[in-house]
Amino acid sequence: MEKKKALYAGTFDPFTNGHLDIVQRAIKIFDELTILVAVSPTKKPFMSTESRLEVLAKLFAHESKVKVDSWNGLVVDYAKKNNIGSIVRGLRPTGDFEIEFQMASMNRKINHDCDTVFLMTSEKLYYISSSLVKEVYNHQGDITSFVPPLVLDEMKKIKS
Asked: Distance between CA atoms of 42 and 8, rounded to whole angstroms?
């Protein structure tokens, strides 16, 4: 039987507890999940691609279903190249639906063999976003309840 493979793509700058929640739930559905660090030429990341990959590899070292990679092209092209049939996306009740629906429709048009699976964010985590976490952190706010400890440790290395 062929593995049900999915990918979860994002800049993950930084990877938050909201992202972690989506990963933990997705691996209950899929046999293999690739966490794909999307490299955007227009974004200036707080954390380098390498540091994000390193943190994610450490964070999921114990989880045999999770692979970590990066990509600077279209996510659907990565999916096609790696025989991945599903893209996992988290949906928050903060206006995500319209843009996510548009992106899923475009991805399906480009690669009709790849479907998008939406997981609703946990009611305890829906307000967390990477951009808000960075803002709180840059103003010396406490972000310990928003990111995994490994991520916070890496962020502290960068800032110091």
From this structure: 20
Active-site residue, from 5, 19, 52, 89: 19
DSSP element (H, E) containing 49: helix 49-59
Residue 124 annotated to the active site: no
* Distance separating alpha carbons of residues 75 and 72, to the nearest angstrom: 8
Quickly state the pLDDT bin for 23 (edges 50, 70, 90): very high
The pLDDT tens digits of the residues spanning 89-100 come to 999 887 778 888
Residue 4 a catalytic site member: no
User: What torsion, rounded to 10 degrees, do the Cα atoms 49, 159, 139, 40 define?
Assistant: -20
Select which of 3, 4, 43, 159 is catalytic.
43
- Domains of the chain with bracketed CATH: 5-159 (3.40.50.620)
* 8 A C-beta contact, residue 6 and residue 115: no
Distance CA 31, CA 111 (A): 21
| 112 labelled catalytic | no
- What are the residues whose beta carbons fall under 8 Å from the beta carbon of 54, sequence distance 6 or more? 154
What is the spatial distance between Cα 8 and Cα 89, in angstroms, rounded to a whole number? 7
